[in-house]
User: Fold these one by one.
Assistant:
Number 1:
Amino acid sequence: MNIQSSAAVFLVFLALTVQAGAADIKEIAQAVDEHYNHLSSLQAEFTEIYTGSGMERTESGMVWLKKPGMKKPGKMRWEYRSPREKLFVSDGNDAWFYVPGDRQARKTSARKLDDIRSPMAFLLGKTKLEKELHSLSLATDYPPMEAGDVVLRGIPESMADRVSEVLVEVTPNHQIARLVIHEVDGSSTEYRFVRQKENVDMADSQFRFSPPPGIETVEGDLAP
């Protein structure tokens, strides 16, 4: 086989490999969508790792997510338990952030919420991976936390002014075990989810918040 023939064979092999990889990514994304589209709620323990401005901050707690229903918006509740208690909660209409002991509680409309947790919509089956994350590909340079998981990389067009890419780690059971959000300013926020419980009964009251007596309500942006 001459050099030209070898080159042609290699190009064909490369093209087939790329096509196979694209098909695998599509199948993984569809399987994740299918898994979360059948959930009504999700509870999990989380670890949040923020890196930026020369610092790293690690926090952990419990999160509850409730999927939108008939004429009902989606809801979420983040209880930070370590190293400091904090609460971030939204009933789909209002969103609140409160630190026990503070004299103020911050509030904003859920429709105006510009929060890094936006990619959590994947966990509620509210969107599709391929639709939300453009140029979806395998992140072979980003090792998974667990053997057998795969890591996907995509660009969130809806948050392109703030987020440069999102990494999604998917388990063999098509659960999202980790989200890594890289922002355009060089910072990153990583969410790890363990002990996930699906379709747990959750009362709507769990996602409402009333400031304790004597606590001032401040309208504005939320920045946990």
Number 2:
Amino acid sequence: MKIIAYILAGILIFFGVLFIWGAFGSTPHPQWILVGIASVLIGFGLIWFAQRNQAQGAAGSGDNITYKVDLPSSTKIEQMKCNSCGGSLKADNVKMIAGAPTVECPFCGTTYQLTEEPKW
């Protein structure tokens, strides 16, 4: 849709400039100036609309990013305890920060990075 708007805007601006230019030819046509100006303004309006529509699509799309945290097979979320206070942690407490799984304890507020223990 955006490409079609740009192509149509280019055509309108091109013909608008031609109408304005033709209005000052050997036989003056003052009404062509109005047609040319209207065509150019509509063309620039289409460009503005396509830009605005693109910006709203990027900002208001509401795309959710889901990170899948791959924990060792022996780790169960229900069994996780805070390293600082020993409070029970839930899956909601695990978040991705700078590409690493981190835990924020709801009881003491401690934030630390999860480390994978060796499996042997």
Number 3:
Amino acid sequence: MRTQNLNNQRKGCLYVVLAAALWAVSGTTAKFLFNAGVTPFQLVQLRSTIAAVAVACWVLLGRRGLLRIERKDLPYFAVLGAILAAVHFTYLYAISRIQVAAAILLQYQAPVFVVLFSVFVKRRKPLLSTIVTVAGAVAGCYIMTGGYDINVFALNKAGVSAGLASAAVFALYAVASEYGMRSYSPWTVLFYALSFGAFLWNVFQPPLSAFAVPYSAASWCGIFFVGIFGTAVAFGLYNEGIRLIGATRASITAILEPVIAGVVSYFFIGEKAELMQMAGAALIVASILLLQTRKKVYAHGE
């Protein structure tokens, strides 16, 4: 039993790391798209719709049993879809208004919100090791992204607000999806969340209007990457991770995103990290490794 739990923990951690890697590339791709003239409103409609269709095709090809849900759970999935739609928009809007590093720093305050939710709503008491892990990972993210050089007061206020909102809704998504996975497969949860989210974005804006814009071939490649790999695949992996290791562990492990982005930048564009950034990356990795050695993150329950 202990070996099985350890294997699940390792597998869950790997899923989240892979999701973080896809998000790292997706964030940079989104910035490229914004510079090419794609608006956040267009990209979120494109992203949501493409991801929903991609997951629907995957489910319909031999996995139709995943579509079965109780009618009483439809309101839950509708709310989860709205939360996921908010996750997509707030982060993309933040990236369009402020530096990618600042947006990542703001969004990855999410583990703090997850722990606070567990403390004040679920009445769980976090272990000291959990508090140390969260503090270490968030501090590492601050250093890794160069937060000490970011003049918050000089940043676009709407972008900062969107970044903080993205942290809150990203945490809420992790907690809410974990609740749904008590009864359903991670892919069932993702299918309905994406479907409702895509529906909302095609109501808030003229249906499929973003698809009628004449983007360049390079932009279309970026759009499909963000929609399929940065959304459908990444959130599918993240959901699998949440199922195996819980929302708290998953949200902390996802802070590896800026570290992975730094490694990708080094190998593909020769961008070298400063000593402080490497120290921040080391602190993130050390915090996550500490997390993986702990059997529990709360005094009672996972």
